[in-house]
From TrEMBL:
SUPFAM superfamilies (alphabetical): Neurotransmitter-gated ion-channel transmembrane pore
The keyword Transmembrane belongs to this UniProt entry's keyword annotation: yes
Species the sequence originates in: Orthonyx spaldingii
UniProt keyword terms in alphabetical order: Membrane, Transmembrane, Transmembrane helix
Highest taxon, organism lineage: Eukaryota
Protein name according to UniProt: ACHB protein
Pfam families tied to this protein: Neur_chan_memb
Gene3D superfamilies reported in the protein's UniProt record: Neurotransmitter-gated ion-channel transmembrane domain
Membrane spanning stretches: 35-57
Boundaries of every Neurotransmitter-gated ion-channel transmembrane domain copy: 4-46
Single Gene Ontology BP annotation: monoatomic ion transport
A cellular component annotation (GO) from this entry: membrane
Length: 66
């Protein structure tokens, strides 16, 4: 009976350790996911702004074919 109780206790400790490791990995994955989201948003916004400014600031010359 003592061996069975020790086995159950060991199993519960391992499950608890596994659950904790899983939660830590989940938190890390969420952090990386948010960082990637912000990177994509900044790059997309920067490209859109750059494209808009490029189009707004470039005017055709008065005589295109001299």
């Amino acid at each position: 009976a003592a061996a069975a109780a020790a086995s159950i206790a060991r199993s519960l400790r391992e499950r608890s350790r596994d659950r904790q490791a899983q939660e830590e990995w989940r938190a890390l994955a969420m952090t990386v996911d948010r960082l990637c989201l912000w990177a994509v948003l900044v790059l997309t916004g920067g490209c859109a702004l750059g494209t808009g400014l490029d189009a707004a600031l470039h005017r055709p010359p008065p005589t295109p074919f001299p």
